[in-house]
Amino acid sequence: MPNLPEDSIDSALFQENERTSSVGQPKEVVSVGELHLRAGGYLPDVEVAYESWGTLNSDASNAILICHALSGDSHAIGWWDRLVGPGKAIDTEKYFVVCSNALGGCQGTTGPASSAEDGRPYGSRFPVVQVEDMVEIQARLADHLGIGRWLCVAGGSMGGMQALCWAVQYPNRVAGVWATASCAAHSAMQIGFNEVGRQAIQRDPEWKGGDYYDGPGPVNGLSVARMAGHLSYLSDQSFTMKFGRRLQDGDEFRFDNGIEFAIESYLNYQGDKFTNRFDANSYLLLTRAIDYFSLKSLESAKCKFLFTSFDSDWIYPSHQIEQLHAMAQEAGKQSEWHEIASPMGHDSFLLDDQRQAEIVKAWLLRF
Predict the structure, then answer these.
(1) Helices vs. strands in the chain: H and E counts, helices first
(2) Which distant-in-sequence residues (6+ apart) come within 8 Å of 65 by Cβ?
């Protein structure tokens, strides 16, 4: 492990957080049956990994669903511990909080690394997934849990897209949607960043067309994809504050074509760490899913909306959330939008435990 500066950024979006809560239940995996996917594929049996915290009311009126971002998992009380937990904005002593691993992921829910009917990993045979498919599986999980209607569905980035899908896909099953640092559809730049990551993986000779599970896999390509993604999730200001042009070792350049700057060491470390917990095929599948996502209207929604964005988030800029707020208002829905000042870029939605938390807590109290 490289010698990271003491004040180095540790992006919450990709943290492997092992913290638990006394009110939480262990991760569970349930089968929700076959799935005909919207792009034409078919899965004979889908398993969903999920975690829950708190106690469900007798009328199931206090249930909140949290949807994770691209590389997240079901452990919301870990990666979103600034907002989710006892006494926090999403209070697990008041609400019954559920988070599942997304369809196509690699943390317990059926994905490319899962075994197909022939006993071998799906690999290249895994069908194309869209955000709407992820939400259909979450709806089946809600049925399994006896939840007919969510008090709120919340999420950031890819999680925000899932929350928005709930509003139009199952309008009678959600009272409120909170989407943070998200959008109605990716821009060319957002698609471009995802394509850089995909190409890094697919050009790794160990990718083998997606059927690499008998070998090391495209760990180098996935590491580079992670580095590119990590750059987009933070801001120039945050990198400058934490790293500047600081050298990793000593006060002089070595001119040896090795790691010279602290930021280089940091990105290499983050990239290598990521390969220990994430599957390259899932990365390809999920980045495609969010690139395909395109929300045209909120007319069919029957819930109220909360939108938050951050002024330093350049990969999911505030004008995209403002567009969603406008869509909700044009559709005659109750909606509010807050832009929050933060130097941490896109990761602000995971790191801000003050202003965002206050907004969310106050909004939930108005239900």
Answers:
(1) 11, 12
(2) 97, 98, 99, 138, 142, 150, 152, 153, 154, 166
Under-70 pLDDT residues of the chain: 1-25
Q: What pTM was computed for the model?
A: 0.93
Specify the pLDDT at position 8. Answer: 33
Angle at 51 between CA 96 and CA 157, to 5 degrees: 90
* Token pair listed for 2: 């490289």
Asked whether the beta carbons of 109 and 49 are under 8 A apart, the reply is: yes
State the pLDDT at residue 42.
Answer: 98
Residues of the chain with CATH 3.40.50.1820: 16-185+295-365
Residues of the chain with CATH 1.10.1740.110: 190-287
- Tokens 């929700």 belong to which residue? 32
Question: Tokens 């945050």 map to which residue?
Answer: 238
- CATH assignment of 190-287, among 1.20.58.60, 3.40.50.1000, 1.10.10.10, 1.10.1740.110: 1.10.1740.110
Query: Phi and psi at residue 53, in whole multiples of 5°?
Result: -140, 145
The Cα 288–Cα 202 span in angstroms is: 13
What CATH number is given for 16-185+295-365 in this structure?
3.40.50.1820
Q: In what order do the strands lie in the sheet with 176-180?
A: 28-31, 47-53, 96-100, 63-67, 152-156, 176-180, 304-310, 335-340
The burial of 348, by beta-carbon neighbours within 10 Å (0-12 exposed, 13-18 middle, 19 or more buried), is given as buried
User: What are the angstrom distances between the C-alpha of 100 and each of 95, 175, 229, 285, 358?
Assistant: 16, 19, 23, 17, 25
Alpha-carbon distances, residue 9 vs 71, 72, 180 (angstroms): 18, 18, 21
- Per-residue pLDDT, 24: 61
Q: What is the SS3 assignment for 335?
A: strand
Active-site residue list: 157, 313, 346
> pLDDT value at position 22?
35
